[in-house]
Amino acid sequence: MAKGRDLKPHIGIFGRRNNGKSSIINLMVNQDVAIVSPEPGTTTDPVKKSIEIFGIGPAIIVDTAGIDDTGELGEKRVKKTYDALKAMDCAILVIANNEFGFYEKELIKQLREFAVPYLIVHNKSDIRPVEPITREKIREFSKATVLDFTTTHSGHLNELIEELKRTIPETTWQKPSLLGGIVKPDGVVLLVTPIDSEAPEGRMILPQVMAIRDVLDNDCICVVLKETHLKQYFDQNMPRPQLVITDSQAFAFVNSIVPADVPLTSFSIVFARLRGDFDHYIAGTPMLSKLQEGDKVLILESCAHQVSCEDIGRHKLPKWIEAFTQKNISFDIVAGLSTIADIQQYKLVIQCGGCVVTRKQLLNRLKPAVDANIPVSNYGMTIAYLNGIFDRVMEPFLSIES
């Protein structure tokens, strides 16, 4: 599944083969988007479909292969299903025929492991309703809501949607502010946006676009310029900004121009507050000063992109870190949301801004490192630390926490 390309809440449908997962999805989206067949194993790879849910808004429904699939191919399908689970903001576990046993319990264990809220739907209730003994078996293992359901009764869909709205975390569909609590209305926010070979042709990157909108949403005046005009801005006594946000790669240059009493941070750090593991980033970044000869550092990218000699993760960060530490450091770079084997071999994990993934996807990607007590950082904080301005660029955020 091409995870991470849509930032809407992801709702996964899980269950055994032939429990009617695809039929439920077709009912929810009011289209035949998922193949329905009495043949077990019809759904092979996770399939995504956009949906508008009243009270939640745009969301992504994900149909998955049966958790009881068998054989060599079946095992691979089940693995993809469990991999998809980590990216979900909410899950619907579909059971039928009053079957609740090993497969469901194993899935629920994983839902708990990755903190995915879920509800249980007993499907095909028109053929065989859920029995009290089944509800009791479920209650012994799970506190999740259990709905008796059939795709032949339209009223059941309304019940499912209402329960889904109660189950899915509000933080997945509410739109929090990038700069909430940091800026005040009517002030000027200065956005420094270098245009180099890594900048996309004819457009701006997502964090920059979101920052512009968020400045306006906070009733502030937004000024956007390239770093080459920054000195001119201050020399001409233009309105003094209450905050300057820059591309992290321009930290050293921008820091030398922006007056010390003007708050300064980066798009990457602002974005990390919204979507990243912010507290662990703050705690983990100083590990850069403790790296030793031969240590291994893992750099995580979230998207696939064309690599150039100016690529920050693959070229610039390794060069800057070795110059800072004066040590020979070994670097591994992993793109996408791939599972990381043997996380214990790394002394530090550095995550990109994650602008193309959801918060849930990013947190679960970092979870193995956090659980293993391996320090984590992100691009912006790492670059700030290497330039000796970590305290300065974190101050706007730390001041609102106190």
What is this structure, in a nutshell?
The protein is α/β, with parallel strands linked by helices and 402 residues long. It has 14 helices and 14 strands.
Describe the structure in your own words.
The protein is an alpha/beta fold and 402 residues long. It folds into 3 domains: 10-172, P-loop containing nucleotide triphosphate hydrolases (Rossmann fold), CATH 3.40.50.300; 188-270, Rossmann fold (3-Layer(aba) Sandwich); 284-386, Rossmann fold (3-Layer(aba) Sandwich), CATH 3.40.50. Helices cover 37% and strands 17% of the residues. The chain has 14 helices and 14 strands. It has helices at residues 21-29, 71-85, 102-113, 132-141, 154-167, 206-217, 230-235, 251-257, 267-275, 278-284, 312-325, 359-371, 379-386, 390-401; strands at residues 10-15, 47-53, 57-63, 90-96, 118-123, 146-148, 188-192, 221-225, 243-246, 264-266, 296-300, 330-334, 348-351, 376-378. It has a 6-stranded mixed sheet, sandwiched between helices. It has a 4-stranded parallel sheet with strand order 8-7-9-10, sandwiched between helices. Strands 12-11-13-14 form a 4-stranded parallel sheet, sandwiched between helices. Helix 11 links the parallel strand 11 and strand 12 (330-334). Helix 13 (379-386) crosses helix 14. The longest helix is centred in the first third of the chain and has 15 residues, at 71-85. The two termini are 42 Å apart. Mean pLDDT is 87; it is low at 1-5 and 305-309.
User: Any idea what the radius of gyration is?
Assistant: 24 Å
- The CATH superfamily name of the largest domain is P-loop containing nucleotide triphosphate hydrolases
CATH architecture grouping of the largest domain: 3-Layer(aba) Sandwich
Structural domains: how many: 3
Structural class: alpha/beta
Strands in their spatial order, largest beta sheet:
2-3-1-4-5-6
* Beta-strand percentage range: 15-25%
Average of the residue pLDDT scores = 87
Number of helices: 14
The ordered H/E elements are EHEEHEHEHEHEHEHEHEHHEHEEHEHH
Stretches with pLDDT under 50, minimum 5 residues: 1-5, 305-309
Judging from the principal axes of the Cα atoms, what is the shape?
A: globular
Report how far apart the termini are. Answer: 42 Å
Count of distinct strands: 14
What's the CATH topology name of the largest domain? Rossmann fold
